[in-house]
Amino acid sequence: MPYVKPSILSVTTVQDAADWIELRAIQQPERLVHFSDIRRMFDDEGDAGSSDYGHEDVADEDIWSQWVSELQERERALSEAYPFELTDTYIKIKPLTEHSWGGYAYLLCLFLSHPKDDDVIDGAKFLKLKKNDPARELFQIISTVAASGYLRGSSVSFGWPRKDHTLFVDAINRLCRIMFDASVFKRPPDLAAPTKIKDFEIDIVSWIPTNDKLPAKVIFVSQVASGANWKSKPLRNSIVANLWPWLEKPFASGSQVITSLFIPFCIYPANNESLAETLRYLCASDLNTLIFHRHRIPYYVQQVFTEELHIGKGLLIERTDDFPEVTAWVDEKMALLA
């Protein structure tokens, strides 16, 4: 079934247009799209909608330039983690191998960016996502790994449901033991502690270990959001300090926590702003948190595996063993598009 839309309008956002081009490449028998074919589609749309051919040609050229620039920026930012080969004349999906960790992470993000029917793809029919679909857990996997790649440190998947099925109090107790940040678990918890709590809205806890295993270190606390309401998900840097009902002694670095948000989407610049301006506003003012999006996550996933940060480096990086689940799911979806 051809899930990807046969054409896309020139008024589509630059990011969606680039997604459509990538998905079209996956869907073609040769796994590539010639840019001349897309330009021809442009010409047909312009000819049907206007008799002012000169003006339309200039406008189309500007739109096309923006689309290509977006693809080039993805390739530049992600380097070997970008799963497409980009030339002056075509875009082609690279062969995926057991070493294409970043590529698989990128494709997972690409597919999850379109969970519903839109101008790009019939996403509802293609993904068939349920409320607590396993695909969202796959995004938790790559986000946990990417957090480690960014910090070059340890990273724990804390969000519910946890792989080991531990309760919240057990997960907090474990953090106290493995982070070496002078915290002591309170048993039993304070009477003010909620009795039914899953993860305190914390999905990932990451940190840069110190060589002496003593307190005071950089700590990242992250939320993972794969839905369209991601702007309502940011954590506040007081989150760790607010764990006091479960702690006899708080984390020494609790007041200096950095919060972050992981999303599978590309950031859409608003009001003719540049991407840098939009991110500056989101991170410094609106959400007040770091944002890891599709231009970043695959790159840091690739770093972990390429540099073998999870092997013999003294780091605790959870979910690396679960990465085959990501590759299997992406391979299944790739087969549906072919």
Summarize the structure.
By secondary structure, this protein is of the alpha+beta class.
Q: Name the beta content range.
A: 5-15%
Radius of gyration from the alpha-carbon trace, in angstroms? 22 Å
For the terminal residues, how far apart are their CA atoms? 9 Å
Q: Tell me the overall shape.
A: elongated
Sheet with the most strands: spatial strand order: 4-6-7-9-10
Largest sheet: 5 strands, mixed
* Uncertain runs: none
Helical content band:
40-55%
Query: What is the average per-residue confidence, as pLDDT, rounded to a whole number?
Result: 89
Describe this protein with a few key phrases.
single chain, 338 residues, alpha+beta, 2 domains, 3-stranded antiparallel sheet, 41% helix, 11% strand, elongated
How is the topology of this model organized?
Elements: H1 14-27, E1 32-34, H2 35-49, H3 53-78, E2 84-86, E3 90-93, H4 101-112, H5 123-127, H6 134-151, E4 154-157, H7 168-179, E5 184-185, E6 204-207, E7 219-224, E8 247-249, E9 258-262, H8 275-286, E10 290-292, H9 297-306, H10 323-337
Parallel strand pairs: 7-9, 9-10
Antiparallel strand pairs: 1-3, 2-3, 4-6, 5-8, 6-7
Helix pairs in contact: 1-3, 2-3, 4-6, 4-9, 4-10, 6-9, 6-10
Mind explaining what this structure looks like?
The protein has ten helices and ten strands. It has two domains: 14-126, no CATH class; 134-322, no CATH class. With 338 residues, the chain is an alpha+beta fold.
